[in-house]
Amino acid sequence: VFFGLLNLAQAAMKGITIWTTGLELFILSFYYFSLYGMIINISLAAFNLLPIYPLDGFRVLEALFPNSKYCAFMRRRGMLILLILVAVSFILGRYIWFLDFIGMYLNWVRNKVLGLLIRMWGA
Questions:
Q1: How far apart are CA 46 and CA 40, in angstroms?
Q2: C-alpha distances in Å from residue 93, one per residue of 40, 61, 80, 90, 105
Q3: Shortest CA distance to 115 belongs to which of 40, 2, 33, 123?
Q4: C-alpha dihedral over 8, 14, 19, 20, to 10 degrees?
Q5: pLDDT tens digit sequence for 33-60
Q6: Nearest Cα residue to 81 out of 60, 57, 63, 97
Q7: Do residues 102 and 48 lie in contact, with contact meaning Cβ atoms separated by under 8 Å?
Q8: Other C-beta atoms lying within 10 Å of the C-beta of residue 52
Q9: Dihedral over Cα of 110, 112, 118, 123: its sign
Q10: How far is residue 39's CA from residue 114's CA, in Å, rounded to a whole number?
Q11: CA–CA separation, 31 vs 28, rounded Å?
Q12: What is the value of pTM for the model shown?
């Protein structure tokens, strides 16, 4: 939905050369709203696909390997592991760049998905 809105906003922006009136500023705001909405949705989907217990990625992994030791371990300790990963990534990752592994993963997925969408439909 946001990608379609983004393409609509880009089509409206093509003929505009001077950004002075309220309509042009509304179109620019609509463009950024659509862009950030798309980025947030891609990032949330990528985060949800991590194979850690309370997330949906674990459910996919559990459906593929129902009796694995990993699934049993994650059922017991998954919430704690997710909390530690998020804390390390978002708190310590601000100071030590290579500890922001969740942020690096989300940026990588976002760039790949956006690149795929641009190649498929243009933007």
A1: 10
A2: 20, 27, 18, 5, 13
A3: 123
A4: -80
A5: 988 998 999 999 999 999 999 999 999 9
A6: 57
A7: no
A8: 19
A9: positive
A10: 8
A11: 5
A12: 0.79
